[in-house]
Amino acid sequence: MSWDAELSALTERIAGPLFTRPEPRQSFADLVRALLADVPRKNSWQLADHVGHRKAYRLEWLLNGAKWDADTLRDEVRTYVVEHLGRPDGVLIADDTQAIKKGDKSVGVAPQYCGASGQVENCQVMPMLTYASAVGHAFINRRLYLPERWADEAGRRKEAGVPEQVGFRTKPHQVIDMLTEELAAGTPFRYFAADSGYGRDPGLRAFCHEQEIAYVMAVPVDLPLIAVRGGGEPLGHVLDRLLACGTPALWERRSCADGTKGRRFYDWAAVAVSVKDQLPAPGLAHTVLIRRSISDPGEMEFFLAHAPTGTAVTELINAAGMRWKIEENNEQGKDLLGLTQYQVRKWTPWHRHVTTAMLAPAFLAVTRARLPDDTAADATAACAIDQPNDWGKDHPPREKTS
C-alpha cells in the first residue's frame, strides 16, 4: 500500500469513532495531511490553502465548533502507536515543551520558564508523554499546564473554556495522571524515564514505587540519598571519594544512544543507594548512575534508577539513553509538524489541535518502522559496549496488563 493510501486508511479508521457526519471526517483527514506537508507556517490559513480550501473556515470549525472528543482521539493515537511500535521492553518518557505566545488570552499562558529560550517567556507549557521501543517512538499522551494564577481567576478560566473540574496540578502530578491512564490502558512498557525536573519530585517517585514501575530519571546531585555500598554514608561523601579517586576500574565507557554525529560515548559508574524516607517497591532496588563527559570530566549527570534487584547496569544505561527520544519528538513536532503553530486560544480547541498533531509523528514513526531496509536496531544492540558486561543480569519485562 502506498504512503498516501496508508494515510487515508488511518484517518478514515480514526475518524470513525470521532465524527457522525462526513464533513468533519474530511476536514480531519485534510488537517492531518496538511500537518505532514511541507507548509512553511502551519497556521489555519496556510494549511487550508495547501489542501485546496478557499478559506480556513472548515479547519477552524473542526477545532473550535464541531462536536468531538479529543480524549477519544488521544486513545486512538495510543492504540495505533502500541499496535505498531509496542514492545514489552518499551519505555515511557515524560518531558515538557513550550509554545511562546503573545498576550494573556490563550489558555494557560503566563510568564514562566521556557526551555526553548532558556529564560522566562510568556508561554504555554505542555507536559508530553512519548512511547519508545526498538522500532520507533511517538507521542501518546499530553497535558496543558495551568499555572496557579489561572486556578483562582474564574472569569479568565471561563473565557478560555477551562472545565470547572480542572484545578491546579503540578507538572509531576500531571505526569502521574498520564501514567495512570497508560496503566489503565495496558500500555506495555518496562521503564519510565524523565529529566531531573521530574526525577527530583518525591510524589512522582512514590507513585512509581506504589505501582511497582521501574524508572531511570535524572536527578540533582543534592537529592538526599544514602550509599548502600558505603556503609550507610550520605551519597555526597561517597561521590566525593569516587570522583577524587579517578581509578579507571571505577568507570566503564559506554554509549547509551546515537547523536547527530554517531554514538555518544560517556564514562559511567554505578552506586547502590537507598532514598531517604522512600523505600523501593518489593523486589526492586535503587541505583545511582553517574555519567561523566569524556572530553570534560567535570561535566556530570546523575540518574536514579528503580529496577528489579540484579538488573544489569547496562540495561539501566540503555533506559537512560532513551530519554532523548522525547526531545526528538518535541523538536520534530514543533519545527516540522505544527505541534505549537496553532491559532486557538481555548481549552477544547487546544487539546484538539495538539492531539491531532500527535497523530502526524505517529504516522511517520510507524511508516518508518515498516520500511524493509529500516536501520532501527533494538534498544540493547543500540548501546555499544567496549568492555565485557559484568554489571548484573537481565530481568523479565513488565507484562502488559488487561
UniProtKB/TrEMBL annotation:
Record InterPro entries: IS701-like, IS701-like_DDE_dom, RNaseH-like_sf
Annotated Transposase IS701-like DDE domain residues: 18-223
Transmembrane domains' residue ranges: none
One Pfam assignment: DDE_5
Record-given protein name: SRSO17 transposase
Organism lineage string: Bacteria, Bacillati, Actinomycetota, Actinomycetes, Streptosporangiales
